[in-house]
Amino acid sequence: QLQLQQSGPGLVKPSETLSLTCSVSGGSISGTRYYWGWLRQHPEKGLEWIGSIYNSETTYYNPSLKSRVTISVDTSKNQFSLKLTSVTAADTAVYYCARRLIAAGYAYDYWGQGTLVAVSS
Amino acid sequence: DIVLTQSPATLSLSPGERATLSCRASQSISGQLVWYQQKPGQAPRLLIYDASKRATGFPARFSGSGSGTDYTLTISSLEPEDFAVYYCQQRFNWPITFGPGTRLEIK
Questions:
Q1: Cβ–Cβ contact A47 with B under 8 A
Q2: How far is CA B35 from CA A5, A45, B64, B99, B102, in A?
Q3: Which of B5, B46, B84, B96 is the most exposed, having the fewest neighbouring CB atoms within 10 Å of its CB?
Q4: Which of A47, A63, A105 sits opposite B44 (nearest CB)?
Q5: Chain B positions touching chain A (beta carbons under 8 Å)
Q6: Residue B13 burial (CB < 10 Å; 0-12/13-18/19+)?
Q7: Is the CB of A34 inside 8 Å of chain B's CB atoms?
């Protein structure tokens, strides 16, 4: 059974960089059958797509965040990461990592547990 | 960006009743629509993909339909565990976008 386990700080200071990692177990992060992505959900709000990475190198980012986002894969550790620079209070949200399965209509079929990240001094 | 509008925002029904949730896109998305179910404190869970294909683990009372700009999620007879928030998502164009959700609550 595939599992995605998120790790990273729950509190980040304004103007600093938010860094989260998603460790994948029960399957390989390598290959062309999946994308790996990050999404977020502001408190009591809907979902926002942050970005995805495909085949460990091709990245797709939400234009609204593109200048601040980096998603990368470490195949040796079977994990992928999110970096969001210059954070503000507007970046306070629950962040999710997820797998996007091509065979399931490119839908996000496995999700991490979510990490509440607060941006505050 | 493609904008998804979901209606109603909140739907109050009783167990055993039929639920019909709507998702409308700002342009045709050619059936490239996904539905997710989210319960409090949990990550979203894939429910329907490609507008009408049910994901593993969901019973047949859940069905999706639609084409072009208009899509529907139907729950034929509500069970207590079905009360949750439902989101639609399009993958026709980057960036991926989500609807604001429909909260299905017990009447």
A1: yes
A2: 23, 17, 8, 10, 11
A3: B5
A4: A47
A5: 1, 32, 34, 36, 43-46, 49-50, 53, 55, 87, 89, 91, 94-101
A6: middle
A7: no
CA distance A50 to A36: 11
Non-local CB neighbours of B41 within 8 Å, separated by 6+ positions:
none
Tens digits of residue pLDDT in A35-51: 999 999 998 889 999 99
Q: Pick the closest to residue A100 from A64, A42, A69, A60 (CA basis).
A: A60
Provide the residue count of chain A.
Answer: 121
| Residue A90 banded pLDDT, cuts 50, 70, 90 | very high
Determine contact, residues A93/A117, Cβ cutoff 8 Å: yes
What six digits make up the tokens of B23? 């998702």
Kind of pairing between the strands at A69-74 and A79-84: antiparallel
Least confident of A13-17, A96-100, A101-105: A101-105
Please report how many Cα atoms fall inside a 13 Å half-sphere around the Cα of residue B2, on the Cβ side.
26
Q: What is the per-residue pLDDT for A45?
A: 87
